[in-house]
Structure formats: C-alpha cells, structure tokens
C-alpha cells in the first residue's frame, strides 16, 4: 500500500513568519509534527511519502503514485485542504483526514472517504483494522484520551529537516483551564497528560543524532499544566542540555501563572527555554471574567510579563478584541498595555467563535453566529454579531495594529523589552544567526524605506552599548518586525 501524507498550505499569517524565512534561507517555520507521528502508527509494510505544501508543491505525479492520501490539518488550512481533496478525488484516490480541523467541521468535506478524529492513538488502530479488513466506516471518533507515554516517536526521516526554521516536540496534551473561546479542552481535555522524562530525553537524543541544532518548539497547549511533573522533567532536560552544551534553544506556550512560580521559571531557563507564548488576551478585567480566563484576573498582568522577562524568557503574547464586555476605550487600553509590557511579538486578533467551544455554543443559542470560522483570528474577520458596532470594532482593531507595528512604536517596544529582559546565560551564536544579522542589515538597514532604517540602526547601537548580552534578541526582534509590517500591507 502506497500512502501519501499531505500537510496543506498555511496562508500568510502571524504564525507563518513567511516574510522572514528568507533571512535564514528556510522554507517553513514549523514541521508537520502530527503527520510524522501518525506515520509511525501506520503498518510497517506500507510505503510512505510526505509532502508539506509549505516547503514544496504537491504534484500530480505524487498523487498518481499513491493508493491513499492522508491529510492532517488545522482550521487555518481549510481552503488548502479543499484543494487537496479535490485533486485527490479527481485522481480517484481514497482520502483519509484527521487533525484539529475536522472534529467539528468534518461535514464540510464531502470528498473525504474516512475521518480519523480526535487523538489518533485511540482511533487510528481501529480504522486500520477495519480498513485492512475491507469494512472501514466513514467516521472514527472517541471521547477517550490516550496515555501519551505510549505515543511512538515521529518519523523524522520523512521530512527535509534543513528546510525548517525549527523542529517540534510534544510534552503534554490538555489544559487545566477552560477559557470560553478556546477549543483545547474540547480537543484534548482539562486533565494534562504528560510524557515521561525518559521519553523526552529519547526524543531529544533522536533529533540531536540526526544533526539538528537550534530552535525546538515544545508544542503543548499549556506546558506547565502539570507543574509537579514538568519540574521533574525540566531537571532531566537541564542535565542533558548541559552535557551536550545546549544544542537546542526551547520555546513553548504556557499560562500566565508561570510568573507566580519562581522555581519553575528558573528550571525552564536552566533547561534552555528562552521564550514563551502567553494568552494575555486583554487588560479589561470584565472581559477576562466573561471568557472564564480566571488565571489572568488573579494576577497583575503587566508585572507578570516583566517577571518572566526578568527571568530570561521573552514573552510572546496573544491578545483578543471583541468581547461583549470590552469598554469603548479598549483599543487604547490594549495599545498602552502592549507598549508598556515590551511584548514585541504581540498577536492581536478579533474574537472568533471556533466550532466546539463554549463561546460557539453560547453565541449559537443567542442567535449571533453569522458565518464560518477562518481559523485566522488576525485576518479581521468576524463570525458573530458583536455587542460593539461591527465597523467600529474593525476600525479600532486596525488602528491598534497600525500603531503597535508602525516602525517607531515597534522599535520603542523592542527597547522596552530589552530593558525588562535579563538573560540567564550567554547563548552560542550559530551560522543561521550570523546570516540573519547580515541580511537584516541589507533589508532593514539599507533597503527599508523612510524612517524605518533609522530606527533599526538606533536599536542596534543602543543594544550594542547597553544590552550587549541581548544583542541577538534585538536583531531577531527587528527581523520579526519586518514580517509584521508586511502582514499589515496585505
């Protein structure tokens, strides 16, 4: 059996970082971790090929070669999925689909022959047994959650590692919190399940032995969901990193209560974490209460960000505008918070109701849903009727983006971050970073227009004079600003 695994194209978004990959001569920011893990669950006698449409085109010849086309995708890849399904069915291929896109939206894809939904460790073996016996059903689904200590190692040999800016690894699934707008609880549950320390070391070893050095994304819903177990694992990862002289720089997603655990912050930086994404959402407390983000109401968010930065981790932040309880001045409040916090990589989106969330259920019961969800909460679309006038909301949202990503304000925010940031150890400078630095001089210091290049040079001079240990972070932040400005021009 010949199986073609396809990872559909991700459009130009905040997370794609498409505009800055040229600085390091890479094709994509992240690997299709789900698909290469699924590959390990398929029969050993199947012949496998993988096409990541973010690094190469899917050809008719590849589709013709296959007996089966397996698609793994997120909501944001929906349009590309439709194209892949259409091309596969035109070639008379059996199409199998799974991933976060499908549990709540599988009915939108009539061309897919079989859906393997939710966590594949539970549903894939049942599907394969039926498929091989010639009696496969259309939909395989379950509410049961697997023991991820038994999850197999990814099939890294199926991808071209040198085309990616970072590798990915997973430690846990699930989140103890239940924010109204988030679909994580629906997908992965509220009880965080974790891999063993031995598993994590083994996965680190595999990547190390394959020659990977550099960025490693721990793709968890909330890395610190089980703080007791994660601390034990971090101690083991620290030993491994020290023995290997820190070949990996780690980043992940966590909840803001990280700032309340001194030991955990120290353990994370000791293990090699240098940045963390937090769902900060909004400085408006009533809006936080509305969406059930209680972990954010019990802490001073601005101080929490600065505390984490002061422990050697950059804070990337997610922000949302469009809650029912947002005050009229929410746009100014968001701008003030973002600028004062030094959150350089601020992902600001309009609230969207994702199918399967409590928010979607509530708005549906209130008769306020209007259209489907694009999966990109930064594209300015709304799929519900907001309490604030919709045009006022969109105009205010655009004004926030225009302000915080204007060169003057963006570079000022980078300097604020550098003031807050206290690196815990000096990192090695690799060839990619050197290449990125010189290309930043070309694109940002020479070819950029107007005052942008002046602000760039001012940043480099100030970083060199006053923040020399963080000079790499200053350059990196300047490069990311290029991506954000390109997105604004769309």
UniProtKB/TrEMBL annotation:
Gene3D superfamilies: Cobalamin-binding domain (3.40.50.280), tm_1862 like domain (3.80.30.20)
InterPro entries in UniProt: BchE-like, Cobalamin-bd, DUF4070, Elp3/MiaA/NifB-like_rSAM, HpnP-like, Methyltransferase_Class_B, rSAM, rSAM_horseshoe
Boundaries of every Radical SAM core domain copy: 159-408
Signal peptide: none
Record-linked Pfam families: B12-binding, DUF4070, Radical_SAM
Alphabetized GO MF terms: 4 iron, 4 sulfur cluster binding; catalytic activity; cobalamin binding; metal ion binding
Cofactor: [4Fe-4S] cluster
Keyword Amino-acid biosynthesis attributed: no
UniProt keyword Metal-binding, yes or no: yes
Gene Ontology CC annotations of this record: cytosol
Superkingdom of the source species: Bacteria
Alphabetic keyword roster: Iron, Iron-sulfur, Metal-binding, S-adenosyl-L-methionine
Protein name stated in the entry: DUF4070 domain-containing protein
């Amino acid at each position: 059996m010949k199986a073609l695994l396809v990872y559909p194209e991700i459009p130009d978004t905040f997370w794609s970082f498409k505009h800055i990959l040229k600085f390091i001569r890479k094709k994509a920011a992240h690997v299709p971790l789900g698909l290469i893990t699924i590959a390990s669950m398929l029969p050993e006698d199947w012949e496998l090929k993988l096409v990541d449409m973010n690094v190469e085109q899917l050809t008719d010849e590849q589709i013709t070669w296959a007996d089966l086309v397996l698609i793994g995708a997120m909501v944001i890849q929906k349009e590309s999925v439709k194209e892949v399904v259409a091309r596969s069915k035109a070639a008379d291929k059996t199409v199998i689909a799974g991933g976060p896109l499908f549990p709540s939206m599988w009915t939108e894809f009539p061309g897919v022959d079989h859906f393997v939904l939710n966590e594949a460790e539970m549903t894939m073996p049942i599907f394969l047994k039926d498929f091989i016996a010639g009696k496969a059903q259309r939909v395989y689904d379950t509410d049961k959650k697997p023991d991820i200590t038994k999850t197999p190692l990814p099939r890294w040999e199926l991808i071209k590692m040198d085309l990616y800016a970072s590798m990915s690894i997973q430690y846990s699934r699930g989140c103890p919190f239940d924010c109204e707008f988030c679909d994580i609880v629906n997908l992965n549950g509220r009880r965080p399940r974790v891999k063993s320390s031995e598993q994590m070391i083994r996965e680190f070893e595999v990547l190390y032995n394959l020659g990977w050095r550099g960025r490693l994304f721990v793709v968890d819903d909330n890395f610190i969901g089980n703080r007791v177990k994660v601390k034990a694992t971090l101690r083991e990862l620290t030993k491994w990193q020290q023995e290997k002289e820190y070949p990996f720089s780690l980043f992940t997603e966590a909840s803001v209560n990280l700032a309340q655990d001194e030991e955990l912050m120290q353990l994370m930086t000791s293990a090699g974490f240098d940045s963390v994404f937090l769902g900060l959402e909004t400085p408006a407390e009533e809006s936080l209460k509305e969406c059930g983000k209680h972990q954010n109401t019990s802490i001073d968010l601005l101080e929490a960000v600065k505390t984490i930065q002061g422990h050697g981790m950059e804070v990337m932040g997610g922000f949302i505008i469009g809650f029912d309880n947002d005050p009229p001045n929410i746009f100014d409040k968001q701008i003030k918070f973002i600028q004062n916090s030094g959150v350089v990589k601020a992902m600001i989106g309009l609230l969207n109701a994702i199918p399967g969330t409590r928010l979607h259920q509530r708005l549906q019961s209130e008769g306020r849903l209007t259209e489907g969800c694009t999966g990109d909460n930064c594209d300015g679309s709304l799929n519900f009727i907001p309490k604030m006038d919709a045009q006022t909301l969109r105009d205010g949202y655009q004004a926030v983006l225009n302000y915080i990503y204007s060169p003057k304000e963006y570079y000022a925010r980078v300097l604020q971050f550098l003031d807050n940031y206290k690196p815990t150890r000096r990192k090695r400078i690799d060839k990619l970073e050197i290449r990125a630095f010189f290309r930043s001089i070309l694109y940002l210091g020479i070819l950029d227009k107007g005052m942008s290049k002046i602000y760039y040079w001012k940043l480099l001079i100030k970083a060199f004079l006053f923040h020399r240990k963080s000079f790499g972070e200053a350059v990196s932040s300047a490069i990311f600003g290029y991506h954000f400005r390109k997105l604004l021009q769309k």
